[in-house]
């Protein structure tokens, strides 16, 4: 093994953006990043860092690449019924494809079920009510390199307690690009028009699919792991089916089949639209006849979208053990699940069976990482551009804050290859997307970063082992 000091490489010292991070709680106390009300997300290629505080209702966007100036602070215009920030996630924005550069947007979820998108400059791109519950997690997944699902696509999933919403990557790009083109004209409006622009009615609704996954109890975390075959009686169906894994208090692990079909009849759809149109017409006529009727001062919240069809597959109940967090491998075929008893379960999401178990890791968090284990090639003078996907080995990085270490284990049944000490008040992060593109001939490996909230140091875990 290499010396301990060689396992981490400093990427940036975010002291220049301390004012921006201070708005999110940095420096208020030692270990401020351990606060569960503080959420963080690392942008593609570790160029930007987003830190949000639910208690302060503040979002800090800090640039990392280029070691430039400080970041910006965004205070979302959220009403009392729109909640506070509970989740953040970076998503790609292909607005600079013509210039050969990719852009990004920042998705923000609230504890009242609202989803907002912002540019790097803090401009609001989109605002939409998804479901009246707390957004536990936002997860953007790239499916381009997943051999299990040939017709899969990128997606943004929104996780609620017992509910999963999904937005297809193509629909998301169309909506974001259109909103991006409209940002500057909206910035030129006066104050009153700008306030109207922040209302949901000024944006087109983003197409979503939503499922109820509370058959085995409310979930604390969940993920869509990919496409799966349809039921035997629906082999001729053109609808796609997804597999979802959930973890929670009642069931440590649960699995569901999610269908695109909402299960609504044609007659029901016609009636629902007809009744809505009739009610709208009657309401308009009443306003004409009784003009003295005061207009409502508060706009009603849009009605949640109807659930699509969900089929429970299996569940594991092991009281008093409770599932806490779930992390997917790049292909979605493995899931690392932490529980309340300090165990980490490695689940094969195809076969829905446990393939490995670790004990003694309370409050741990996990991220998958790809490491170079070939000593000859790793020590050679060849550049990183010459490495291919076959040169990397999939591993699991486990951050155990009570032990003060980060361990790296080789998948699926390999040994522990690293144990790195880390300071308190740190958090492991990972870019949400790797921007796999033909513009870059080399393979972009999955990396893990360590952010020390107290010192502002951001480091990357070295890929070369041995």
From TrEMBL:
The keyword Ribosomal protein does not apply. InterPro entries: Rab3GAP2, RAB3GAP_N. Residues 293-322 are annotated as: Disordered. Keywords: Signal. Residues 32-429 form the Rab3-GAP regulatory subunit N-terminal domain. Residues 1-22 form the signal peptide. Pfam families: RAB3GAP2_N. This is Rab3-GAP regulatory subunit N-terminal domain-containing protein. It comes from Lolium multiflorum (Italian ryegrass).
């Amino acid at each position: 093994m290499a010396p301990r000091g060689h396992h981490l490489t400093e990427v940036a010292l975010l002291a220049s953006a301390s004012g921006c991070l201070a708005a999110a709680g940095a420096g208020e106390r030692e270990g401020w990043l351990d606060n569960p009300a503080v959420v963080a997300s690392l942008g593609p290629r570790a160029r930007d860092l987003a830190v949000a505080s639910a208690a302060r209702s503040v979002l800090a966007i800090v640039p990392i690449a280029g070691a430039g100036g400080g970041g910006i602070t965004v205070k979302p215009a959220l009403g009392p019924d729109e909640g506070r920030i509970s989740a953040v996630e970076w998503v790609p924005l292909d607005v600079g494809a013509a210039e050969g550069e990719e852009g990004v947007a920042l998705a923000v979820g609230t504890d009242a079920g609202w989803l907002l998108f912002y540019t790097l400059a803090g401009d609001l791109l989109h605002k939409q009510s998804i479901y009246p519950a707390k957004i536990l997690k936002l997860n953007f997944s790239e499916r381009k390199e997943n051999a299990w699902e040939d017709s899969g696509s990128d997606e943004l999933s929104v996780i609620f307690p017992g509910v999963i919403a999904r937005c297809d990557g193509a629909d998301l790009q169309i909506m974001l690009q259109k909103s991006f083109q409209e940002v500057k004209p909206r910035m030129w409006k006066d104050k009153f028009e700008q306030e109207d622009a922040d209302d949901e009615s000024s944006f087109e609704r983003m197409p979503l699919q939503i499922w109820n996954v509370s058959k085995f109890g409310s979930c604390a975390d969940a993920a869509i792991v990919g496409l799966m075959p349809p039921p035997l009686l629906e082999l001729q169906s053109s609808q796609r089916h997804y597999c979802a894994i959930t973890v929670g208090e009642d069931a440590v692990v649960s699995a569901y089949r999610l269908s695109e079909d909402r299960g609504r009849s044609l007659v029901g759809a016609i009636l629902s639209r007809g009744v809505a149109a009739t009610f709208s017409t009657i309401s308009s006529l009443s306003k004409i006849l009784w003009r003295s009727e005061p207009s409502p001062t508060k706009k009603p919240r849009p009605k949640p979208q109807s659930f699509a069809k969900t089929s429970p597959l299996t569940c594991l109940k092991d009281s008093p053990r409770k599932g806490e967090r779930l992390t997917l491998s790049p292909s979605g075929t493995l899931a690392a699940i932490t529980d309340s008893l300090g165990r980490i379960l490695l689940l094969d999401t195809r076969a829905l069976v446990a393939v490995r178990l670790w004990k003694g890791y309370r409050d741990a968090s996990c991220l998958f990482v790809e490491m170079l284990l070939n000593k000859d090639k790793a020590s050679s003078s060849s550049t990183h551009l010459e490495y291919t996907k076959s040169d990397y080995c999939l591993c699991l990085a486990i951050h155990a804050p009570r032990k003060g270490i980060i361990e790296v284990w080789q998948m699926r049944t390999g040994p522990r290859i690293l144990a790195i000490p880390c300071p308190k008040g740190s958090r492991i992060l990972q870019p949400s997307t790797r921007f796999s593109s033909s513009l870059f001939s080399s393979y972009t490996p999955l990396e893990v970063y360590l952010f020390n909230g107290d010192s502002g140091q951001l480091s990357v875990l070295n890929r070369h082992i041995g």
